[in-house]
Amino acid sequence: MAQMNLLHAINNALDIAMEKNEKVLCFGEDVGHFGGVFRSTSGLQEKFGKDRCFNTPLTEQGIIGFANGLAAQGSVPIAEIQFADYIFPAFDQIVNETAKFRYRSGNEFNVGSLVIRTPYGGGIAGGLYHSQSPEAYFTGTPGIKVVVPRNPYQAKGLLLACINDDNPVVFFEPKRLYRASIGEVPEEAYEIELGKAEVVTSGSDITLLGWGAQMEYIEQAADLAKEQGIACEVIDLRTLLPWDVDTVAQSVTKTGRLLISHEAPLTGGFAGEISATISERCFLNLESPIMRVCGMDTPYPLIQEKEYIADHLKIFEAIKASVNF
Amino acid sequence: MNNPEQQSGNAIHQATFVSGHALTIPTLKVLAHDGEVIDGAQMPQIDQALALRIYDTMVYTRVLDERMVAAQRQGRVSFYMTCKGEEASIIGSAAGLSDSDMIMAQYREHAAIRYRGFTSENFMNQLFSNKKDLGKGRQMPIHYGSQALNYMTISSPLATQIPQASGYAYGQKLQGIDALTMCYFGEGAASEGDFHAGLNMAAVLKAPTIFYCRNNGYAISTSTEEQFAGDGIAPRGVGYGIETLRVDGNDCLAVLLATQTARAYALAHNKPVLIEAMSYRLGAHSTSDDPSGYRSKEEEDMWAKIDGVLRFRAWLEAQGWWSQEQDAALYEKYREEVLAALKVAEKIAPPPLNELITDVYSDVPPHLRAQLTELKSHIAKYPAQYPSQESH
Q1: Is B137 on the interface with A (CB under 8 A)?
Q2: What is the Cα–Cα distance from B310 to A47, expressed in whole angstroms?
Q3: Nearest-CA residue of chain A relative to B389?
């Protein structure tokens, strides 16, 4: 085991994948010698050469189109989009191409080896264009998987699973935690199964569900609730598409209550999808309405970021409201 | 429709490539490195008043950049980007326009909005995201904009302004407005799909747009060698059927001449023009960047020696329009002015919480009103936890 921050864990996973399979390539804007604007690809060009880890011209649609071609050809592309806020020029390539490559060709061709890595999320004074959480645009797209890790251990295991998975994955990295989240990480390769949620803390009174950087606020809120004698069951969904309905439904069947929290705006957010499904599965077990604590329905603000964020206090208040319903 | 009998060149009967490097675009230069006018060079339209307005903006921009990088290091602002090294390019081109022309910039062109009259107070209010910021504190520092100054508010995503500039200019043409749209972008942004879409649309639909590419050598850490394989950005204009000029971006008179010529052509013919200005980003990409990881000090020093501000000043002095004493006094004046404005702006309160939900739509819809009410009642429970309460 070694102490790693989330960036080290991602760098380590990429290093292992490139070492193991020479078809693995890492590319994107500034990822080469510079090692990426966050340094997640640091040292990879020096170690594996410019053919396998390289800077691309500044074009997100080009990066993902190029990656689709590489994946169809049999290479294993790991494409970086510098900020998730800038993924949208590549939206056509991801939604119409990546996601439908296998289905439209009757599995004659596929881009299952593709992984798209991109830092997402707020809390860093990044304003409108360095803070967004666009996962729900992608969860509405059958054919891709969507994965979000919450800490260094999860990041390494999930990223290696994404690289080895035979389906294209969009891997959202919580950039607020890149350096802030530090933990024990095995130095060798390991995988965390995709499509499986993790029960982080067991509890009997209410289920708290989230993913990525939001897990930190959820766990803080659970601690506040514990002081009031409320036992929260905390679940990290980890894979949003396809998501682990069974683990969540089992928990809600037990606790009778569900609170979902994400950074993205409330309306159209993935919490709505989870809420609908759990209402169907657990209707007779629910003792209060399913709560959603999410970003507000505005663009991501700068100066009012602290007010805007679905923070631990907002989650704590919602926990109390649910329990006292 | 393509005509099978009609070729744009001679027919050939051997498979012979036109080389990918067949077209090389010359560079317009008026001032030599020492500030002397090159023999036989065409001069732009410039008089003493215009020359001094340009130089005043150069000095101001340099002072502002120097002060704000220091302020970022002191933790007073979160972020900053400088124009350093490209002042002659930005200001010379802004000076070649009419102030009624719309400017759609990328983010490193604040010298152009300064040239139009953006005040120290305007700059500082934006940089400190206070309640007097025209953008209501919603964007990161350096995202300036002003309806009054015909300067479109900056958007961080790259190249999005390029096709927008084509559309804006097409509207100006249709409405018979005697103004065009100036679109600034970097050579990195020219790799985005929006660049190609925007230039092609302006050419096909005949929009009076000046596409002004600031080729400053770097897109963050990515050098031009890794950005494109051809002769820069200029030949692409020819590919789209657009009149094209390449200019030495550190030669303010050449930039002014190029822009004046482009403006006259674009308005006379209702057609776009592409200008590629060759320069160098002397500063870091932003205060979050450290260029020592990807380029040498020697390279930076070489470009600093042929800096466009020094070159323009030498020319001014040779005209007898400027002196060392005036120069020192101007720097001193702006250093005091900028620092004073900074000290005022950093104490002005942030925008009110209510502005969190305005301007999402033209009117605030009921669901946002409800979310704000809910937020306020939450903040009332934890007043010490939220900064908006500190200022009330």
Answers
A1: yes
A2: 43
A3: A307
Q: Which of B106, B128, B158 to mutate to test the interface with A (most CBs of A within 10 A)?
A: B158
CB contact under 8 A, B156 and A85: yes
Confirm whether A191 is domain-assigned: no
Q: Is the domain of A233 the same as that of A310?
A: yes
Give the number of other CB atoms < 10 A from CB of residue B75: 7
Question: Chain B 139-168, CB below 8 Å of chain A: which residues?
Answer: 139-140, 143, 155-158
Condensed to tens digits (0 to 9), the pLDDT of residues A102-111 reads: 999 999 999 9
What number of C-beta contacts closer than 8 Å exist between A and B?
130
Structure letter (DSSP) for residue B190 = G
The rounded distance, in Å, linking the Cα atoms of B244 and B258 is: 10
Q: What is the pLDDT of residues B330-388, one digit of tens each?
A: 999 999 999 999 999 999 999 999 999 999 999 999 999 999 999 999 999 999 999 87
Q: Where are the domains of chain B?
A: 27-34+43-289+296-345, 353-389
pTM above 0.80, yes or no: yes
pLDDT tens-place string over residues A240-294: 999 999 999 999 999 999 999 999 999 999 999 999 999 999 999 999 999 999 9
Q: Are B138 and A314 in contact (CB < 8 Å)?
A: no
Residue type at B285 in one-letter notation? H
Residues of chain B with pLDDT below 70 are: 5-7, 389-392
Residues A176 and A222 in one domain: no
CATH code of the domain made up of B27-34+43-289+296-345? 3.40.50.970
Q: Kindly state the tokens that stand for B234.
A: 């200029």
Q: Are residues A207 and A267 in the same domain?
A: yes
Contact A29 B219 (CB under 8 A): yes
Residues 6+ apart with CB under 8 A from A147: A158, A162, A169, A170, A171, A172, A194, A238, A239, A240
Asked if B222 and A126 come within 8 Å (Cβ–Cβ), the reply is no
Residue-range definition of the domain harbouring residue A65: 2-185
B291 close contact with A: CB closer than 8 A: no
Question: Does A134 map to a domain?
Answer: yes
